[in-house]
Design goal:
Layout: E1 17-25, E2 37-42, E3 45-57, E4 67-75, E5 87-92, E6 100-103, E7 108-110, E8 113-121, E9 124-129, E10 131-135, E11 139-144, H1 157-169
Antiparallel strand pairs: 1-4, 2-3, 2-5, 3-4, 6-11, 7-8, 8-9, 10-11
């Protein structure tokens, strides 16, 4: 017979490696991959960073939070990370290395093509077709059409687009 009011079942925990469960917002999913590095901080050790890797990315977006759960496996040889701790994480998706990005506000569609406006000097601008890659929160990867260091118009491009439309109508 089992005593239902007796002690709770035994729980075995191995703290050599812990999982940090992170909520990844829907708009940040495009660049996320299993194997990406993550840096973890916890309030108990504010001057210490822990490094782990994403081992799992959930399949469903939570309808309330608009986030997907991801698991980050973190080595914990000192056993300082404890179950239930609140953690903050920064995930390195590798998307910033060698990638050209432009503000999303700089991308326009002209004649069915994605373009940016590039200043030529003396108040003149040229239209530059671009090929888009992954989208971030407020930036878009440019896979072709710009080179490192090119400037683009991030505000006021709608007026330039209107000028093009007016010239085409003449």
């Amino acid at each position: 017979m089992v005593d239902r009011d007796g002690p709770a079942p035994l729980t075995v925990i191995n703290l050599e490696r812990v999982w940090v469960v992170a909520n990844i917002f829907e708009h940040d999913l495009a660049g996320l991959r299993t194997g990406d590095l993550a840096e973890i901080t916890v309030e108990a050790y504010p001057n210490r960073n822990f490094t782990g890797r994403i081992t799992y990315i959930g399949d469903e977006v939570d309808r309330t939070t608009r986030a997907v759960r991801a698991k980050i496996e973190v080595p914990n040889p000192d056993h300082v990370l404890k179950p239930g701790m609140f953690a903050r994480t920064t995930i390195d998706t590798g998307s910033a290395r060698g990638v050209i990005v432009a503000p999303e506000t700089a991308i326009y569609e002209v004649d069915g093509k994605e373009v940016v406006f590039v200043p030529d000097g003396d108040g003149r601008f040229s239209v530059r077709p671009v090929t888009l890659g992954r989208r971030g929160n407020v930036t878009v990867e440019i896979t072709a059409g710009l080179k490192q260091g090119d400037q683009v118009v991030a505000k006021g491009g709608l007026a330039l687009k209107s000028l093009i439309a007016n010239k085409a109508a003449d």
